[in-house]
Amino acid sequence: MEKLPLPDIRPLLLALLAHPSNKVAEAAAKALTSRGEKTEAPPAKPPLRFRLTANDEPIAGQYIEYKFDHVGSAAKTNDDGILEIGRDMALNAEQYPASIQLANYKFTSERYNLADTFFHTSVPMPDIADETIVDMPLQTRSVTLNFIFPQPAMEGTEMFIAADSHSAFYDEQRSIKLPATRQVTFPRVLGTLNLAIVAPGTADWRGEVDGDTANIELQPAHDVCFRLKFPKEIPQIPQIQQVYLKIEPQPKPQEEVWRQWRT
User: Fold this and answer.
1) Packing angle between helix 22-34 and helix 6-16, nearest 10 degrees?
2) Are the C-beta atoms of 101 and 116 separated by less than 8 Å?
3) Class of domain 48-138
4) Parallel, antiparallel or unpaired: strands 213-217 and 141-148
5) pLDDT tens digits, one per residue of 156-195
C-alpha cells in the first residue's frame, strides 16, 4: 500500500493526540515524530473511576466484577472504595456502552465473608472524556437467616454457605466457612441473596432470599464417606488393549460431515 504524504495525514494525527485512548494518542505522537515532527505524547488520561459506598461507607478492599457489551473483568477497590477500569477496556467494545454492570466477586482462591457487600446493579457509563470520579452510592439492608437443624447436636459443627447476588453454587474454596449456628446475619445486601448451604448430616439447601429475614429448615440426610482402594497390581488384559489400539478416528470428507450436520 502506497504511503500517504505527510500533509494529507498530519491533521488526522494531530486530532488523534486528543483521543480518549492513551494507546491511540501515543501511537499518533510516534507517527508524527517518525515523519520528522517531534511530538510528545499528551499526559496519560486516568482510568474510569467509580466510588462505591454502602450506606455512606466505602466498599473498601473488595473485588468487583464489571461487564459491558460482552467485555468485562474484575478489579479490587482501594481503601476509599474507588474502582478503576481502563478506558481502553470500554473502547474495545463494539460501541461505547451506555451502561455498566457491577457485582461483588471473589476469585477461586478467596473466600466470601459475611462482612462483604453483596450486590448486582447497573449504572450509566460516564462520558469517555470525563475524568472525574463517579459516585455510586448503594442503599443496602441486613439479611438474617434463622436455621432449623434436624438434630440439636449439629450446632457447632462445620457448615458452608455459598452466597451471591446473582447466582450461587457450592464451591468449598470460596464459600463462607463457619460453625453451624441457629442464626447468621449478612450486614450489607442489595437485592436478592442467592444461597447454597451445605452442612453435615443435612440435605443441601438452595434458594433465594428477598426479604430481611428467612427461616431455613434443613432436612436430614446421610453423609456417605468412601475411599477408593486400588489393587497392588492391576491385571493386564491384552485383548482389551489390542481393541483400544485399533480405535482410531478416521477423517471424513467435508461433504459427509456437512450432510450429517444438516440431517
Assistant:
1) 150
2) no
3) mainly beta
4) parallel
5) 778 888 888 766 566 667 788 888 888 999 999 998 998 9
Q: Is the pTM of this model over 0.85?
A: no
Question: Which CATH topology does 141-217 take?
Answer: Immunoglobulin-like (2.60.40)
Burial of 199 (0-12, 13-18, 19+ CB in 10 A): buried
Q: What is the pLDDT of residues 188-231, one digit of tens each?
A: 999 899 898 888 788 889 999 999 999 999 888 866 665 667 67
Please report where in the chains the cell 438452595 appears, as a residue: 206
The dihedral of CA 166, 167, 173, 179: what is its sign?
A: positive
> b or e along 150-165 (b: 16 or more beta carbons within 10 Å of the residue's beta carbon)?
eeeebeeeebbbbbbb
Indicate the pairing of strand 63-68 with strand 57-58: unpaired
C-alpha cell at 217: 429448615
Instruction: Quote the cell numbers at residue 181.
Output: 449456628
